[in-house]
Amino acid sequence: MGDIQDKVNIDDKLFLNSYDVDTTSHLAIKDSTVCSNCNEKVCTFICPAHVYEWKDAKLIVGYEGCLECGACRIGCSHDNIDWTYPRGGFGIQFRLG
Ligand code: SF4
């Protein structure tokens, strides 16, 4: 009998989704200096889609892959993410999986 991880692979499930990506981000950092001084950087590990990456002393936001789950908005210790849904017609289209 296989382990449950053999049966459910989150990356395989996410691969089934499709996106209609807007040209502007629906995720905005309110104040980048807050991120610079943030020790936790919760967004870089709470996001299931790995949208946030701390690189070269800067927060990179790859909004294109957002799953619209809202975890980053709730998880940010400093309430520093201006979170909205993508404009109508844009964003993720979930597939059964
Ligand atoms: Fe990641 Fe969810 Fe935030 Fe989108 S809403 S950036 S998927 S944590």
CATH architecture: 2-Layer Sandwich
**What is the CATH class?**
Alpha Beta
Bound molecules: iron/sulfur cluster
Main sheet?
Answer: 2 strands, antiparallel
Number of DSSP E strands: 6
Q: Can you give the helix content as a percent range? A: 10-25%
- What's the gyration radius in Å? 15 Å
Q: What is the average of the pLDDT values?
A: 92
Low-confidence runs of at least 5 consecutive residues? none
Strand content: 15-25%
Order of helices and strands: HHEEHHEEHEE
Terminal residue distance: 22 Å
Tell me, what's the shape? globular
Question: How many domains?
Answer: 1
Outline:
This protein has helices spanning 4-7, 10-15, 32-36, 43-46, 71-75; strands at residues 18-20, 27-29, 52-55, 58-61, 81-83, 91-93. The protein is α+β, with helices and mostly antiparallel strands.
Account of the protein in words:
With 97 residues, the protein is α+β, with helices and mostly antiparallel strands. The protein has a single domain, classed as 2-Layer Sandwich (Alpha-Beta Plaits), CATH 3.30.70.20. Helices cover 25% and strands 21% of the residues. The chain contains five helices and six strands; from the N terminus they run H-H-E-E-H-H-E-E-H-E-E. The protein is globular, with a radius of gyration of 15 Å. Iron/sulfur cluster is lined by residues 27, 46-49, 51, 66-72.
Outline the secondary-structure elements.
Elements: H1 4-7, H2 10-15, E1 18-20, E2 27-29, H3 32-36, H4 43-46, E3 52-55, E4 58-61, H5 71-75, E5 81-83, E6 91-93
Antiparallel strand pairs: 1-6, 2-5, 3-4
The structure holds iron/sulfur cluster.
Iron/sulfur cluster (SF4) is lined by residues 27, 46-49, 51, 66-72.
